[in-house]
Structures are given as C-alpha cells and as structure tokens.
C-alpha cells in the first residue's frame, strides 16, 4: 500500500515506529555533537568559525538534497527511501568515528546529512497522510515527545562521554544503534508502491543545488572570510540568480520538482516565514551557549550537558500538551505566547556576565525552551493543514529546505556578529588598558591581561550575537499575530467541473 500518497483508515503504526526510531538516532547524533564542538576545536586545532561547518555543512547538504524529497516520496516506497537514508547515515557515522583531521570529519557529517535529508520529510509526509486534521496536532505532539527525548538526553550523555572518553566515542556510541535500526527496517518494512511515471528534472536539480548550495555556502563562509570577500558575496550572488531561475522554471513546468505554487495558500506561506525566522534565532542557543559555558566559564562538558537537560526535558514534555492545545485552540495563541517568552529570554541571554550563576543559566534556558516548544510544531502543522493532500510532499520538502537555509543563514550571521564584535571589543579593551599602564608589568602580568581581555571581548561578542537573535525572534512574534486557524483547501484537480485535468491544473500538480 502506498502510505506516502494515500490516506489510510488505520495509521501505519509499524512504519511510523521504524521511521521514528531512525529520526531519533539522527536527532540524537546532532545533539551529541553540539556539546562536543569546543573539544573538537581544541583537539583538531580549528576556530569557532571553522568548527561551525560541522553544523552548517550538515545543513548545506540538507539544503541541496531536501528539495528532491518531494520527487523521491512520490517516486519510491517508504521502505526503499528509509533503507537508503539510514544506510547513508550509518556510513557517515562510521567514517566520523575514525576521523583524525577536520576535513574527514566534515565529509563524514555531509554523508550523514545526505541520509537525514530524506528521513525527516519522509516521516512528516507519512504522518500527514495517516491522521485526519482534527487529530493531527495530538499525533504530532505524541511523536514529538519521542523525538524531543533526543535533545533531552543528548547533551548530558555527550558531556559524560567527552569527560571520560575521546569525542570520537560519540560516533562509536551511535554506530551500533544505527546498524540495528537499519536491520530492523530491512526486515520489518514491507510496504509496496505502484510504479509511478515521474522523472526527475536534472536541470532543475542543478539549479536547485547551485541556488540553495550557493546561498548556504556564502553565508556560512562569512564568519571566517568576512562579508567583503569575493568568495562570500560571489557565491551568494550566484546562488540568488540560480535560485531565481529555479523558481521560475518550477512555475512553468507541468511537474515541478518543488512546487512553489503552494505559497498561494496564505497560512502555509505565513507558517513557513515564521518557522524560518524562529530557526535563525533558535540556532543562537545551540551554538553560543556551549561556547560560553565551556570556553569562557570553564564549565566541564558534563556540567554543560546537565545545564541543557531541564530545557530539553521541558520541550519534550510540552510536546504532547502543545499538540492537544493546538487541536483545541489553534496555533495563534500558542505561537504568540511562545514567541513572547522566546524573545524575552533571548534578550536576557544577551546580558551574560563572567559570573552569571549556573542556576540562572539552567532556569533561563528551560524557560526559553518552554517558549520554543509552543511555536515550531503548531505553526508548521497549521500551515501544512491548509494544503490539499497531494501537496503534502511538496509542503514538507519546502518547509525542511527553508528551515535548513534559515538555520545556516542564522548561524553564519550570529557567528559573524560574535566574531566581528569580539574583535572590536578586544581592540577597545586593549586601548583602554594602554591608557592606564602598570609600571613595568611582568611578562606574567601581560599574559594574564591579554587572556582577561580575550575572555571579556568574547563574552561581549556573544552578548551582541544574542541581542541580534532577540531582534530576529521579535520579527517572528509580529508575524505570529496574523495566524488564523487553517482549513484544508479544495484540491484544484478535484474541483474541475469536467473532472479532467486542465493545463493550469496540470501545471499545479
């Protein structure tokens, strides 16, 4: 039976369970790595602007491959796509576990990304066609609880592993689990799919890859090369031109690889805009908090992971509650409340000090995660609910693509702000120190002063980056005020009086 295209009377719980386990492993791998970034920086002797490529490079591959998932979901069975995705992820994990230089580790992450790029849109599409609109929020919430268990245990588990073992053990830990999940999928997934006469537009794939890839690469390079580098603005320009050509081609072709006409549905367009903006702000916490607590505060990896645990648990426990509230009240009140909390707490993160208490960090992060838990799934589900069923593959692919692009742009922007502002603050602090020189300071005193200036400058750079993230979150809050409860729109093909596909309807297919 074709679970990717037809609604079933009884949800395919077996397929959903296997997909959820695979997605859980992918999520767990990402949360394990966040706490490890400072250790990787030290061991492989790379800077923050370089190590961020383990995150942005992952998103780069996702941004290139996810646009093809709408085609893949329509063309191939759930079983085949899952096995390919999980196989690629497992291979990447094995390679990462033996990496001793940064380029190899980065390449392994990109192989992992090629698998996870297929996994999440596939899971979301199966869920959308498996549950009616009135039960979709609750279903998403329950499965969200399972998925959010990964961020809950990931940082703490990562901190414990790094404190006792080499960071490569993070990948050695995931590898046997990934192999077992792959075998479970091989033996248990039995769904079949009728042959579909659909072909991939290779020129569209080329334009999409250059477009999304150019934008992601350009923004990701800005942190290390600067915005005035030809490599940065050149790739952004090429990406923008290619993406424009890609969009125009999709609007003209009868069977688009990624259907941009879904943006004519206003709630989907609004939800995509909000989740993009929230993703830009969300990555600030994932990237900046570990750097602050470990590099500036000297907090151990285990304690850093424990610090993130209450926030992740809050997000996990809120997921089914948020799902039920969404079914009852809709997405607007949840999104506005959640974004107000997110904006306020992100602002307080821009006021960090050298001696900010551990308890303050734990509570503030937990409240911030509470706010974010009320935004992402309700807003995204509300937008997808407005689409006709046959647009679900395009809707999930579009959302995942735009979220990857927004995450990469947000990460690059915030790292750039942190880097440039750190340099500015360092120059100012050094200049002030020279105005009041100590009489013939010793070499030890000079070294201590330089280290103190470096720490203070980085702290202020992180605070400035969090302030920019606050402004980004405020934009999402304003957009959330325009959310309305979605009702599924009529499929234009089914709405044809003659029952035949017109040229316009074919163009929208």
UniProtKB/TrEMBL annotation:
Cite the Major facilitator superfamily (MFS) profile domain residue spans from the record: 15-488
Q: List the membrane topology term(s).
A: Multi-pass membrane protein
Segments for region (Disordered) = 489-509
Which stretches are transmembrane? 12-33, 53-74, 81-102, 114-133, 140-162, 168-188, 200-219, 231-248, 268-293, 299-317, 329-349, 361-380, 401-419, 465-483
Any single Pfam family the record assigns to this protein = MFS_1
Keyword list (alphabetical) reads: Cell membrane, Membrane, Transmembrane, Transmembrane helix, Transport
Q: Does the keyword Cytoplasm apply?
A: no
**Keyword Membrane part of the UniProt annotation:** yes
Choose one Gene Ontology CC annotation of this protein and give it. Answer: plasma membrane
The places in or outside the cell where this protein is found are: Cell membrane
The Polar residues compositionally biased stretches are 499-509
Query: Which molecular function terms from Gene Ontology are attached?
Result: transmembrane transporter activity
Q: What is its main location?
A: membrane
Cross-referenced SUPFAM superfamilies: MFS general substrate transporter
The text of the family note is: Belongs to the major facilitator superfamily. EmrB family.
Protein name, as recorded: MFS transporter
Protein's organism: Pseudobacillus wudalianchiensis
């Amino acid at each position: 039976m074709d679970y990717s295209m037809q609604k079933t009377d009884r949800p395919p719980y077996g397929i959903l369970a296997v997909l959820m386990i695979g997605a859980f492993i992918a999520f767990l791998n990402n949360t394990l790595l966040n706490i490890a970034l400072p250790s990787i920086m030290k061991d492989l002797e790379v800077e923050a602007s370089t190590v961020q490529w383990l995150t942005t490079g992952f998103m780069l591959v996702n941004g290139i491959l996810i646009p093809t998932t709408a085609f893949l979901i329509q063309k191939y069975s759930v079983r085949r796509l899952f096995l390919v995705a999980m196989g690629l992820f497992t291979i990447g994990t094995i390679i990462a576990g033996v990496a001793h230089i940064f380029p190899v580790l980065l390449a392994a992450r990109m192989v992992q990304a090629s698998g996870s790029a297929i996994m999440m849109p596939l899971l979301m599409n199966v869920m959308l066609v498996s549950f009616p609109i009135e039960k979709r929020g609750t279903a998403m919430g329950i499965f969200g609880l399972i998925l959010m268990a990964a961020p809950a245990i990931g940082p703490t588990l990562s901190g414990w592993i790094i404190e006792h073992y080499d960071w490569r053990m993070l990948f050695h830990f995931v590898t046997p689990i990934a192999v077992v999940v792959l075998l479970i999928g091989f033996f248990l997934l039995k769904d079949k799919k009728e042959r579909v006469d659909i072909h991939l537009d290779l020129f569209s794939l080329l334009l999409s890859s250059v477009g999304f890839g150019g934008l992601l690469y350009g923004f990701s390079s800005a942190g290390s090369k600067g915005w005035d580098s030809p490599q940065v603005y050149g790739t952004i320009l090429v990406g923008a031109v290619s993406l424009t050509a890609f969009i125009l081609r999709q609007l003209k072709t009868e069977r688009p690889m990624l259907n941009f006409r879904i943006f004519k549905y206003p709630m989907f367009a609004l939800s995509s805009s909000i989740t993009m903006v929230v993703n830009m702000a969300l990555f600030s916490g994932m990237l900046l908090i570990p750097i602050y607590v470990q590099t500036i505060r000297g907090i151990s990896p285990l304690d850093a992971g424990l610090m993130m645990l209450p926030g992740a648990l809050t997000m996990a426990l809120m997921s089914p509650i948020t799902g039920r509230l969404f079914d009852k009240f809709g997405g607007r009140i949840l999104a506005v409340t959640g974004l107000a909390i997110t904006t306020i707490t992100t602002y307080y993160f821009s006021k960090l000090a050298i001696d900010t208490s551990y308890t303050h960090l734990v509570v503030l992060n937990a409240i911030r995660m509470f706010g974010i838990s009320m935004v992402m799934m309700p807003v995204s589900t509300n937008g997808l609910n407005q689409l006709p069923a046959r647009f679900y593959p395009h809707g999930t692919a579009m959302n995942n693509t735009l979220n990857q692009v927004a995450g990469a742009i947000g990460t690059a922007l915030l790292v750039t702000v942190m880097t440039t502002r750190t340099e500015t603050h360092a120059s100012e602090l050094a200049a002030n120190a020279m105005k009041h020189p100590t009489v013939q300071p010793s070499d030890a005193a000079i070294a201590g002063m330089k280290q103190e200036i470096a720490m203070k400058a980085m702290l202020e750079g992180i605070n400035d980056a969090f302030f920019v993230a606050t402004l980004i979150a405020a934009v999402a809050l304003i957009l959330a005020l325009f959310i309305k409860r979605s009702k599924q729109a009529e499929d234009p093909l089914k709405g044809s009086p003659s029952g035949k596909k017109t040229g316009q309807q074919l163009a929208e297919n």
